[in-house]
Amino acid sequence: MNVHKNCAVLILGANYAKYPNGEIRMLEVVDFSPHFASPNKAILLVFLSNYLFLNTYISVQNKQHTHMKNLLTVCFCSFVALSVWANTPPKPPIVSPASSFLTYGQSATLTALGCAGSVTWSNGQTGNSVNITPKEDQKLTATCTVASETSIASNVAVVTINWVNSCDTTQNLTAPLSNTARKYEAKKHITATNSVASDASVRYNAGQSVTLNPGFQTNSGAVFKSHIEGCSNLSTRQVATGLSSPWEILWGPDSFIWNTERRGIINRINPTTGSITQLLDLTSQVSALGESGLLGMVLHPDFTTNPYVYVVFTYHVGGPQPSTAGMLQKVVRYSYTAPSTLNNAAVILDNIPANSQFNNHFGSRLVITPDLKLFVSTGDIANAPLSQNRASLNGKILRMNLDGSIPADNPTANSLVWTSGHRNPQGLVYANGNLYSAEHGPNTDDEVNLILKNRNYGWPNVFGHCDGNLGAGEATFCVDSNVVQPLVSWFPSNPFTTTSTIAPSGMDYYNNNAIPQWKNSLLVAILKNQRLMQLKLDETGTYVVEMRDYFINQFGRIRDICVNPAGQVFVCIDAGGGSGKVIEITPTP
C-alpha cells in the first residue's frame, strides 16, 4: 500500500504499519480471532487522517487466510473509523480420481477432498462423493461452501467411455444399436439406415462422408455424434535386428534412427536398409547392472549448427562389482562428425546418486524444449523418501541450461529441481507447450502425468490418484502438498493386496495425417503385455479423451517410440543378446 507522505495509517491488531512516506507491502495480522464473524471474515479498523486516500489496496495475511485484497475508496476522512470485511473463500476441493476410463454401463465414484463444508458438483449433485453412470465422456468439477463463502471450482475430473472401434474402407450400417458404446470408423464413407436406442452411445467417423439415409433414427435419450475423421489399418515391417537391450530410439534430422543400447553403445540406423553404424562404444565406462546402463539420449534441436548429442548413463566410482554400491549417473554431451564419429565429451551434470539396492528406478529420459532447456527425469533408486527431499536429485524432473547451469527462472534458486514426488519416470516428451511423463508405480498405479512447474507428484505418499488407496493420509497429503493427479493411472486399487501394472516406458507425440486416428495423441511403449498404447488428448492437451491398445504381444517388450515427419512410427523391442530390434509402423495402403 502506497501511503502519501502526509498521511498516517494505523491498523489495530496489526503486527506493524509503516508511517509517512513509507510503503506497506504486507500486513501480518497477529490475532483477529475475537473479530471473526465466521471462519472466513475478519474486521479491520482503519484510521486515516489529513489526506485523500483513493483506490487503495490493503493486503492482509494471517495464520489461516492469505492475500485478502480489498479495494477501498475514501473521499476524505479525518480520524474516521471504517469497518472493512475481508472475505476469504475456502480453498477449492481436490476431486479424485482425476480421470476414469469406463466401459459402457460402468459407474464411477468421484470424491471431493479437503472441504470442511458442503460440496456442490457441476452437474448439480451435492455431497462429498457422487456416483455417475455416463453415456458419454463427462468433465466434472466441485466447489466447497463454508458458511456463506464458496470456493472457486476444483480441478476437472474426466470420465471417459472406452469405445469399441472398427475400421473399414466403407461401412453400411443397418442393424439397430442398443445397450452399447461404439465408434464406427471408415477410411472413406459411412452410410446408415439403422436406429440408435435410448440406451446407446454411438459415434460415426469417416474420412470423406457420413450419410444418414431415410430410416436412420435416434431415440430419446440416445447419444449420437458424427465427425469427418478417417482411420487407417496399420502395417508393420522389421527395420533392424541385432541390438542388445535397446533403450532409446529417436528420429534424427539426418533422417536416420539414433539408438542407445543399455550396455553402452550408441548407434545410427538406416531406416530403409536397416544397416547399423556404431558411433560410440562406452562399455568400458558404463555400468549396466539390472536396469542401469546407457539410457536416455537427445539431439540438439539445431543439429546442423550445433551437432551435439546428450546422453545419460550410470558408472562406478568405487565399491564391489557387480554391485550398484558406489554407482552414480551423469549427463554427457558429445559432438557428432558425420557420418560416424562422436567425440569431445563434456560432462553437463554429474553425481546423480545411482546406488540402488535393487539395481532399478533410474528414470533417465532426456528432452530439450524449444527454449533450449534440458529436462532430465530421475528415479528414486528404490529409496522412496528421496522423492520428497528437495535437496536430492532423485525422484525428480530436473531442468537446466544446455551447459548444465541452473536457469534463473527455476522454481528454487540454485536448484535444478523442476518437480518432485516421482518414482521411476521412464517416459518424457514435450508437445505443444506441454511436458508429459510416463512413470512406473509400485504394485499399482502406473501413471502418465502432465508436468507443471514446481509441483509435487505425490510419491511415496500418494499412489496414482488421491483416492485414498493408501488410507486417509493419502488424501491429507494431496491437499496439504497441492499434489498433481495423473492424466491416467493404471490400475488404482489397494497396493498391498493387488498387483496390477502395465509398466509404461518411452513415449512420443503423434499429430500427423498419415494415421488420422492417432492425431493429437501420446503413443506410449508398454512393457507388460508388450503393446503400444494410444492416449488421445483433447484440444488443450490437458486431458485424455480416448485410450486404445495396439500390437498386443506381437513383437516383445516395447521399450521406446519415435515418430518421423512423414508420420511413420518406429518402436524398439527390448531384448538382450542381439535379439533387440526396431519395427516400423505405417498405414496400410
Task: Annotate the secondary structure layout.
Blueprint: E1 9-11, E2 27-28, E3 41-48, E4 53-61, E5 68-74, E6 80-87, E7 94-96, E8 99-102, E9 108-113, E10 118-121, E11 129-132, E12 138-140, E13 142-146, E14 149-150, E15 157-161, E16 164-173, E17 181-192, E18 195-196, E19 201-206, E20 209-212, E21 217-218, E22 223-228, E23 234-243, E24 246-251, E25 257-261, E26 265-269, E27 276-281, E28 294-299, E29 308-316, E30 327-337, E31 341-353, E32 366-368, E33 373-377, E34 397-401, E35 417-419, E36 425-431, E37 434-439, E38 446-451, H1 472-481, E39 488-490, E40 504-510, E41 521-526, E42 531-537, E43 544-550, E44 558-563, E45 569-573, E46 580-587
Account of the 3D structure:
This protein has 589 residues and is an all-beta fold. It has four domains: 9-87, no CATH class; 94-161, Immunoglobulin-like (Sandwich), CATH 2.60.40; 164-228, no CATH class; 234-587, TolB, C-terminal domain (Neuraminidase), CATH 2.120.10.30. It contains one helix and 46 strands. The strands form 13 sheets. Strands 16, 17, 19, 20 and 22 form a five-stranded parallel β-sheet that branches. Strands 23-46-45-44 form a four-stranded antiparallel β-sheet, with no helix packed on it. A hairpin with a 6-residue loop joins strand 37 and strand 38 (446-451). The protein is globular, with a radius of gyration of 28 Å. The termini are far apart.
